Amino acid sequence: MYIKPFKVEEWINAHEQTAKYNISSTGVVNLTLDGLLELTGTDREAFLEELCSRRLSYGHIGGSPELLQGICGLYRTLKPADVVPTHGAAGANHHVFYTLIEPGDRVVSIVPTYQQLYSIPEGYGADVKWLKLRKEDGFQPDLDELERLAAPGTKMICIINPNNPCGSVISNEALRRVVGIARAAGAWLLCDESYRHLTQNGEWIDSVADLYEKGISTSSTSKVFSMPGLRMGWIACRDRDFVASCLSHRDYNLVSCGNLDDTIAALALKHAGTLIERGQNVIRDNLQVVEDWVRNEPHISWVKPQGGSITLLYYDFDMNSYDFCQKLFDRTGVFVSPGDCFEMPGCFRLGYAGNTAEYLKAGLDGISQFMKTLE
């Protein structure tokens, strides 16, 4: 099977380990295990003693009861039988396509998005239609256009909410219309919800898995919960036939998630409210740093993000985004991701919550210094 190169992942792999200021990271400041234990008020000695004495078996093949209950706590209607643990949200998205998509299926994907949500179904031979978000519309989808694209018989609609790379949020009201469009077409609705719970105003973002019988939510402990190294994600859906099919396919390519990862993730999700509050505090404080910088930087424009931990920043130089980001990196050590990785020219993606506000300021200063050399 041919599949297009994953542009942003290849870019990140080539640069992030040698960056002086990595302000491309897309999650909230990563936790240490000690940090997690402290935040959750867990007895460190007792936790580590139990963990270190455990046999490194497969553990619960379908996820421990504690993990499944913790995941269900992030939704309003789901039960443990509605959840399939995976290797990260990336593994979840891939597994959904692996389970459902066949050659010739019509798939509608809102773009820009995480490239998985159009390149994998294209690789499986699907007929993929794009609904392009526009800066002038605040990166909100044209739902009339979505309704036109999602003709009856459409197999799947793919969205990401909050959006990566834009940071826009589809309102709960608009999300219900998206559900109505999917239902009218008889389509599955896949929503990558990796940044759900990270909003600037603290508003609850509904999950498609709660709203729609064929709504599929994918997420992980990577972004909101600051633990990408666990590689713990999940698929959530109330259609039990689909869940059974996922579990059947899972026997061939996954078997189970890591025993130790499951335990740490279960602890984190037991205290999800505490970690979500931490994440929201970080994104609000750090976004204020970015907003102050944009206000005083004549070469930059943006649509202020409503959620998540990333945003697109547009520059006014006649230079493609790969050249801009590579020269920025070479001259200053500041690392951001080209907008062209997301089919969005003339801009770059900033990850503003991956480190302290002071670190972020230093990285933004580096961008300003670089742009002065382009004047």
Globally, the shape reads globular
Average pLDDT, rounded to a whole number, is: 97
Uncertain stretches of 5 or more adjacent residues: none
H/E order of the elements?
HEHHHEHEHEHEHEHEEHHHEEHEEEH
Helix content: 40-55%
Assembly status = single chain
Total number of helices: 14
Number of strands: 13
Largest sheet: 7 strands, mixed
How would you classify the helix and strand content by structural class?
alpha/beta
Using the CA coordinates, give the radius of gyration: 20 Å
In whole angstroms, the N-to-C terminal distance is 46 Å
* Biggest β-sheet: strands ordered side by side in the sheet: 2-8-7-6-5-3-4
Proportion of beta-strand residues: 5-15%
Describe this structure in words.
- With 375 residues, this protein is of the alpha/beta class.
- Helices cover 43% and strands 15% of the residues.
- It has helices at 7-15, 33-40, 44-53, 65-72, 88-100, 116-123, 143-149, 172-185, 208-211, 240-253, 259-270, 272-295, 321-332, 357-374; strands at 21-22, 83-86, 106-111, 127-132, 156-160, 188-192, 215-220, 233-236, 300-302, 310-315, 334-335, 337-338, 347-351.
- A 7-stranded mixed β-sheet has the order 2-8-7-6-5-3-4, sandwiched between helices. It has a 4-stranded antiparallel β-sheet with strand order 9-10-13-12. The chain has a two-stranded parallel ribbon with strand order 1-11.
- α4 crosses α11 (259-270), α12 packs parallel to α14 and α13 packs across α14.
- The protein is globular.
- The termini are far apart.
- The model has no long low-confidence stretch (mean pLDDT 97).
